[in-house]
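Protein 1 of 2
SEQ + STRUCT:
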Amino acid sequence: MPAKLLLLVTQSDDGGAQRYVNDLAVGLTDRRYKVTVACGPGGPLIARLRRNKVDVRVIADLARPIRPWKDGRAFWEIYSLIHDGPYDLVHSNSSKAGFLARVAGRAAAGKRHLFTAHGFVFQEERSQAARSAFLLLEKAAGMLTDRLITVCDADRELALQHRIVPCERVITIHNGILPSPPLPTAESRKRLALPARIPVVGTVANMYPNKGLMDFVAAARHVIQRHPKTFFAVIGHGPQYLEVVEAIRQAGLNDRFRLYGQIEEAWKLVSAFDVFVLSSRKEGMPYSILEAMNAGVPVVATRVGGIPEAIEDNVEGLLTPSGAPDEMAHQVDRLLRDRALGRTLASRARRKLVHYFNIDRMIDETERVYESLL
């Protein structure tokens, strides 16, 4: 008889936690699990899962912003879902769903509960009071957690440092993707309406402050001084969109930037870029880095979260401090000037992806954690 698994995530838009939930749900459905996914309304994750015959329950009041009245209603929806399941395992993702589900799961007859941290919210750029409050909530939820999965060793060390859970209850399972050929460069540039023979520096990132897109725009201003024909591309959307647009305008780069919003299967289009940049100020293990590695595009990224675990500096890519757009621009300049260096770094990165950062390894390791609890 298949084990019944409930996967929860706060939002149903396109993001790393949603990608992770989708990949686990589809992959485990093909094994010995009966999977249900619960998430907030309105995003493409819902249709994507249903196309793959995964049972989806929409939690109408579950959303990212803190809204006590709606959060209370979301809690009762989650409690009812868990209580009436019945599920053998409850596996939550993202901070809001993770906290509500762990409390609801313990109230609903002590269900076995896992939580995957895709980067801790108390590490975000907030006031000290807010960060302290989120840390206290994470520690309280940790007491209700049978296993904490971190997507990088950096977050595992944070969990142990802050005593969120004992060491025997936390494990790192790096994200993985299915190595697949991207579109040919000429076709991906055609789809993005980019000129065929000019340098393109691009990123795939939702427009949240954590992604450091203001640093990306500032770096572009430095790059354009040395490579005036360069185009810059951003695939993704989010609440910081208008700020990004204004930063581009103030930098005088309106004719050099292309903002595409959300694109389904954006990984196929990363091959349009000569250099992939990730300017994040906080990360777990970003899928966009893995997609650039898969596409064979050289990477410049900030040295935060799990990024150095995927990209070793000067081996598979080039790393910079976060919040240092001038250094980021310098590394982009290196790759635009030295295409042979870029090809070498990208080739090593793709070999590493195929060997280790693949989806089968991620699902196998996650299944072993499930089995240890079942």
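Protein 2 of 2
SEQ + STRUCT:
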Amino acid sequence: MLALREGYRESARELGRVAEGLPAAGSERAGLLDRGRGVGAVGGGERAESNSAQQRCTNHKTMNVLDKLPKAEQPRRPRDCGRSGRRKVRWRRKLAAGVIADFRRAGYDRAADCLGDDLDRCLTFYAFPEPHWSHLRTTNVIESPFAGVRLRTNAAKRFKKTKSGVYLVHQVLMRLSQNWRHLKARTCVPRYRCRKERTAG
């Protein structure tokens, strides 16, 4: 966990304040920001992390597309044929284009529009080390602990002071963090960061 603070709502202003405070807390610039489609989430992070790559949660994208299809028409997940990162992106784009065309022929324009919208940001994680793909492609790693937080805060219902709520959330997250799994191939992180900085220079 990098930061926790109280805020009025999930807005661009509030999330921007959190992101802007990370360097002061000793956190380096993020190489990748993984977040949802909401205006607040995008605006707040991009102001403070304009040089960071942008990733959308692939699980949320899939659920959003399937939600716009009749249940009987929901396609099975395509197999990943073991292509390298760059080839995977080209293959995914080609696959998506074919699925979008199939949706439109079948009259499912809403599903086609949803799949095509912001597709490139769903594929950003392929530019990072392959062992990290399972960590970066979805925000479930963030949302799963917050299910436990919501369970506890819903039981409390209300707090006399906002600091009491922040303290409770912090304690619950610290307890849940003991079961978090470690990052795969952690040695790839400094090598990849240095390679990107040399390329940018």
